[in-house]
Give the backbone structure.
Amino acid sequence: MGKMIQFVRNYDDLSTDKGFQFKFHCDKCGNGHMSHFETNALGMAGSLLNAAGSLFGGIFGQVGDATYQMQRAVGGRAHDEALDKAVQEGKQYFKQCSRCGKWVCPDVCWNHSAGLCEECAPDEKEELAAQQAKATSEQIYQKTREQNYTEHINFKEKTAVMQCTSCNTKLTSADKFCPGCGAPNSLARPQAENQSRFCSECGAPTQPGQKFCAGCGNKLF
């Protein structure tokens, strides 16, 4: 029984019938390295025979197909050897954290003083700077909401903004007609609804639409 091939989870297999190549990534930041391309001699021979078969046909084509099938049958062993070699090569560029098992790049994601990846043992200066920036952002968020930016605005005198249904000109509820096209503003608020009315004879308060005074019977206009 052959030896087990050590491998990592963070790699892409870029191998083809022409040769073998693998790309390894850092588990933390995603940066990585690509192994050197290793030519597959059987794959190249099969491609040449297939090309010859396409040109001359007949027995050459059959030999080419047979060679390619043979390459596929024995390609597993060649592929495994290439992967094993690439993993050994990749170990020179990555460090494995003994706490979480992840493979990380030593330049960015490895804490050399702690001997662990920076997810398990963050760099003190980097972590302090990151937390200070986070706290600053949170405090700015909180302080800006404690400040009253609308105390000078009289909301009671503000009117809603709307659009004319004919020409889309901006209107307010106080506009009876559109200043853009002159069309009546169906959403205008009648001024009479906001004004108090009284009977001219006895001074009793009246309501919109009321024809006679409820206090003296005087006819209202």
User: Anything to note?
Assistant: The radius of gyration is 41 Å. Confidence is low (pLDDT under 50) at residues 45-64, 68-74.
